[in-house]
Amino acid sequence: MIASAPTLLRRYGLSARHSWGQNFLHDPRIHQAIVAASGARPGKRVVEIGAGLGSLTGPLLETGADVWGIERDRDLCTVLRAELGELPNFTLHEADAVRFDYGAAAEGCEEPPTIVGNLPYQLTGPLLFALLAVHRRTGPWIVMIQREVADRLCAEPGSRTYGGITVMLSRVRRISLVTQAPRGCFVPQPRVDSTVIRLDPLPAIRGEVGDEEGLRLLVQAAFQRRRKVLANALGGVATREEALAWCAAAGVDPRVRPERLGPEDFAALQRAREAEAGAAGTTE
To answer: Does CATH number 3.40.1160.10 belong to domain 212-283?
Structure first.
């Protein structure tokens, strides 16, 4: 069993890097809740974003799972190699988690790998979008994020906290609560509370499109002007005439605000956009 985060910090003479948003979880109850939610077991691959001091890595390894730990801090990698490096089911990847090839983790696996991690607050968005890029090749994601962000991801259309990332994630994943993680569970203690959520692949995507990146840009443009009606909010990617045509083809009211639309509505708008582009291409 690996030592606690405070003990390891003292043992190796380390401290958290505030510029990297490092806060080490030291509550074993939350570690066990994450492990249970991950379904870690022999023969299953679990990829941990930000392995840190190994406080979660250790319990994951105890299940017999094949654990890939991603960590970019060289000092923490030294700790992980010293404390866990001899275990045959542990593979350390000294890498930037935002740029890591999560699709490669699926190679040689009988089932898609599970992703777990305590996401740094300033990197939550980039990391979630990195996972979205490989959502078809990965299993459940169990991630700890700022409680305010978790509330946003679980919001329904029409809510003030509903936003673009909610649209993109809820289109492909079912989002549920695992447990809360008050700020006192971390060392050093952050100024905000956290929440652990689970994002499971949906049996069917809520609106297929041909161009996933195009959809992301469309949604982003809409929510950058969320106080405007849809026909005007889409000004970042279309003229008003184009936006009105897309709305008509998608069966969406151009007078509503973006926050009123569900993932299927945005997917329908993107398909109308793609159809218009395709038609324009055939006439050239």
So the answer is: no
